[in-house]
Amino acid sequence: MAKTSHATGLHRASLAKLNELDAALELMYYGWRGMTLEADAYLAKQGLSRPHHRILYVVARRPDIAIGALIEILGISKQAVNRPLNLLLERKLLTSKRSPEQHRSKLLRLTEAGRRVEQRASDHERNVMREAFDRVGASGAAGWMGVMEAIADNN
Amino acid sequence: MAKTSHATGLHRASLAKLNELDAALELMYYGWRGMTLEADAYLAKQGLSRPHHRILYVVARRPDIAIGALIEILGISKQAVNRPLNLLLERKLLTSKRSPEQHRSKLLRLTEAGRRVEQRASDHERNVMREAFDRVGASGAAGWMGVMEAIADNN
DNA sequence: TTCTAAAGTCAACATGGTTGACATGAGATG
DNA sequence: CATCTCATGTCAACCATGTTGACTTTAGAA
Lengths: 155, 155
Prior knowledge:
elongated; about 10% strand; DNA-binding; about 65% helix; Arc Repressor Mutant, subunit A; three-stranded antiparallel beta sheet; homodimer; mainly alpha
């Protein structure tokens, strides 16, 4: 299970710290990479990538979401959503149907296959998080959540 | 200072949690975005972006680094490094010189202007981190570091 | 019937990354 | 000296992900 840092050609650099908080910046960078690495590799095997996963993730948690709402949550333009979304529909990982009362909006849902891909990709990420939380215990996990909430709400 | 979540077109989605750890995945996503948001806006004003900042960041902490070592730390191909690196040299944010004893390698250094840009961009990120750490206190900060180290070393 | 909002589509473009192929410059070795 | 090798530089082709702008289609609402 121990992967070498060279597998990705990337390793946590031993850089001189110019500032007390430099370690935090680097941890954020390599932490993000560390969490997404295996999930991205899995997605790539399926011919998918991060934007596809983001769509599947959101639709899994908001069945019958309209495209407009999806676009707002993803924070990208409808044109940017269009390509990955169409691929997911073609590949039958998603279905879209007109709402009975709101025919304007198309409502998105995962198919069984879509649910499976979403779960497996997200599982890779959750496993990384679970291992990390296990290593530091409940209080460390709570600290992590507190910091990340503060950062996330900075936008 | 309070920015609306709509400024970016992106907001923390109120998504149903299918899994206990979903909150952690979302926090990582929005946390990364939150930390880099202001720095990216500053860099964009300078006509620069994240890859330029990464180069400046590394060279600031490893003066006289050779290009090959830089490539390895960044984890991208030399061709991908080439364009942003050349821009930084043209803009005189970086200098390169042949090493006296190792003429093969070019050694990179920041100019004063480069140091200034690097500091300002990194300051935006550090400020976000500092505020978050202040909000949760030392034990929370320690927990955050522990979790992020575990994740970062997962690669 | 006409107005409007949601969705879809098309074109052009920027950026950041990839591989592959090849040129150059300079130390190392026969 | 000649040649080998390695670090670097450069060029071309390509792909993915995003952008803006312009336009069409669809269908509910006025």
